[in-house]
Amino acid sequence: MTSFLIIDDHPLFREALGNAVRLAHPDTRIFEAMSIKGALGILAAEQGIDLALLDLSLPDATGFSGFLRLRETHPRLPVAIVSSDEDQQIIREALSLGAGRLFAEIDIEERIGALDRAGAEWLYFRSEQFRDPE
């Protein structure tokens, strides 16, 4: 059974993202945390979480500090950064730090499609969001 961990301090966003996951994967177990501290507690108690969906703005983390704490304590855990920030520098920094998957805040249909492919080594952007410098 697939397990997702949603890490976001906004209850309505956690609920919406959880609903999108359930639509794509009805049998998925979903865990929720409001902070990095809460996420680390869940990860310590629950084995086999397949993917963490992480908001960059949390009460106990700023910028990439939460991502780095997750990576430090659970280096094999795939982490998708869920953010409305479309700044290309932030996207590049996320990639350089090892965020193998990055989701912008997109409509539910696109999110479901992206989550449906989250098991693959895969990166999702709306095409106009990111272009490699030439």
List the helices and strands and how they pair.
Layout: E1 3-7, H1 11-24, E2 29-33, H2 36-45, E3 51-55, H3 65-73, E4 79-83, H4 88-96, E5 101-104, H5 108-116
Parallel strand pairs: 1-2, 1-3, 3-4, 4-5
Helix pairs in contact: 1-5
Task: Pick out its properties.
5 helices; single chain; disordered C terminus; 134 residues; 18% strand; 5 strands
Q: What does this entry look like structurally?
A:
- With about 130 residues, this protein is of the alpha/beta class.
- The protein contains five helices and five strands; from the N terminus they run E-H-E-H-E-H-E-H-E-H.
- It has helices at about 10-25, 35-45, 65-75, 90-95, 110-115, and strands at about 5, 30-35, 50-55, 80-85, 100-105.
- Strands 2-1-3-4-5 form a five-stranded parallel sheet, with helices on both faces.
- Strand 1, helix 1 and strand 2 (about 30-35) form a beta-alpha-beta unit.
- Helix 1 crosses helix 5 (about 110-115).
- The radius of gyration is 14 Å and the shape is globular.
